[in-house]
Each structure stands twice: as C-alpha cells, then as structure tokens.
Design brief:
Elements lengths: L2 H22 L3 H9 L7 H17 L4 H24 L4 H24 L1
C-alpha cells in the first residue's frame, strides 16, 4: 500500500472518529446543525456509529485492502449525504464545505487503495 493512502486512511479515520464523538456527546453546535438539516435526534447515534464503523474499516483496510476500499467508499457516500442535506436547505457552501472535502478525500483514498491493490 502506498504511503499516501496509509497516511490518508489514518487521518480520515481520526476525523471520522472525532466527528462521531461530537454527535455521541451531543455537542450543541452539532445538534443544532443536525436539526437544521432535518436529522431526527434518534438518528444521530446511528450516524455516529456509521462513522465509527467507517473509521475502523479504514484502519482494518491497512491490512486488508478490500475493506479499506469499502470503508473509504462508504464514508465518501456518508459525507455526500451530508452535502445533499445541506443543498436541500439551500445552505451556503461554507456550511457544507467540510463534508464535501471529506467526501472527496475519501473518494481519492478509495482510488489510492484500489490502485495499490
């Protein structure tokens, strides 16, 4: 596996974990944003656990490329879902730029892992 994909996998796993922990800790800013885009309170832990699963998949993918590709693809789709939710609310790009960047970085990571596979 390329050094770039290893570093990217670890960094993206950290970001996904931090994002999930913010949801599980019910940080006010995150809860407000989730409510703004229409996420129900009982859905928030599910989204957090999906992020954690993605983060674990990226780390396991360091040893098993197929799992890393699946995890990076899944996280890319997860964050694209966040972008779509913001676009439906006609939010400014500044509100969904982080999710868009994470979606793109996960897609690039999936490609890097697959190309080294």
């Amino acid at each position: 596996m390329q050094i770039t994909s290893v570093v990217l996998s670890v960094l993206l796993a950290i970001v996904a974990t931090v994002s999930a922990l913010g949801k599980l800790q019910k940080k006010p800013q995150i809860m407000e944003m989730m409510a703004h885009v229409g996420v129900k309170p009982n859905q928030i832990p599910v989204l957090a656990y999906l992020e954690i699963a993605g983060a674990l998949g990226l780390l396991i993918g360091l040893a098993y490329a197929g799992i890393g590709i699946a995890a990076a693809t899944g996280l890319s789709l997860y964050f694209l879902g966040a972008v779509v939710a913001h676009l439906k609310k006609k939010d400014a790009i500044s509100l969904f730029a982080p999710a868009l960047m994470l979606a793109l970085l996960n897609a690039v990571n999936a490609y890097l892992i697959a190309s080294a596979f």
